[in-house]
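Components:
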Amino acid sequence: MTTAAQIRMKRNHLAPGLLFALLVLTSVGLFFVPAFIIRPFRPQTPDALSLAMAVRQQAPLGSLLTAALALLLALFLWRRTSTWKKALLVLGVGLASAAAVMARVDYFEWMFHPVALPGFESAANVKLDPAQMVMAVRFGSDVRAYPIRAMAYHHVVNDIVGGIPIAVTY
Amino acid sequence: MGGRALHFRLAGINNQNFLMRDEETGSWWQQVTGRAIFGTLKGQVLDPVVSDELTFGLWKQESPAGQVLTPVAADEGHYENDWEPEVQRLPTPLSFPGSGLQSRDVVVGLDVSGVSRAYPLNALSAQSPIQDRLGGMPILLVMAPDGKSVRAFRSRLDGADLELFRKSGSADWVLVDSSSGSEWNFRGCATMGPATGHCLEQLPALKDYWFDWRNYHPATTVYRH
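Structure:
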């Protein structure tokens, strides 16, 4: 039997429930929208790219706030909801937290690890096939080569040559 | 940038040209143009550095005292030697039909005073050295005997335009200029004759896939001989 009090309680839960869903969606969207737009092998229009970068810029703080609010709301709703709704709350908080973590990591560097501190050896000691390609720069007497087999993996190396900071990219 | 050294990290990919972010301001930069496209440094452009793409053999011959980037031990297993044929088969996010070139044809791109032209690598293999004019400047584009290393020069010395040709009947790879008969090497320096000791000014040249070059140089022309 549904009493008037129970109906009131259900109505009272509708708004927080929607808010919870909105917070979870926002947190997930802050990570997922830019990740989706800048996925490899897909074309990006300038507008889509701008949107991706703008969202990504706000994502670390935004997803943290929305995930934290979603958690607070879940705690508030916890004792007032049925078991299957508790499962939804757990799922929602989990998704929002995962998004907040993903928005703070550079997952492109999971695939292509960065070079923390570039090391060098002299040309005479290097065992490299003479047919291998290198990128090379020269500043006065400072001459450096960056084998393309390494550059095609790391993509970017920050270096200082002849006192000048350079970014070598491939 | 503005007296401050920036450190770049791989941050994404845009139409198969990567995006990087600097650790100092978090601005986003397009790899191929060196231009900040988002963030506090938006609109700023990094100074391009003249660089070469050479075979290790040729580079070592020219720079025996040079230094070579050491592989990162933990990542060396991921380095690939034969990735080019694989990449050649991958789809491209953009295509620019009508040029007679395929998206993944490799070109050497030159940009002189804002005028850009793509030189198909095939044409250069067949015809090196290429003499051309671009943005009012005489251009020399050469491929080394290894068939891979490429350099571009402004073929002008002391205000006079030079025409350079492969020296015929010589076992070594040597260029000769038609005005003084001086001999020139792959570094663009005269090694014999009246011009000895002089070097041509090297121009930045970018080896790139056609679709990528065309995307960032919409007004580019394509060299045909």
